[in-house]
Amino acid sequence: MHGHPTNTEQKLTWKQALKNACLKLIHERIAHIEQAMLEAREAANSEEKSSAGDKYETSRAMSHLAQEMQGRQLEDARQELDFINRLNTTDIFTMANTGAVVICPDIIFYISLGLGNTIVDGCKIMLLSPKAPIAALLYQKKEGDTFVFNKKTNQILSIF
Question: Within a domain: residue 53?
Answer without folding.
Answer: yes
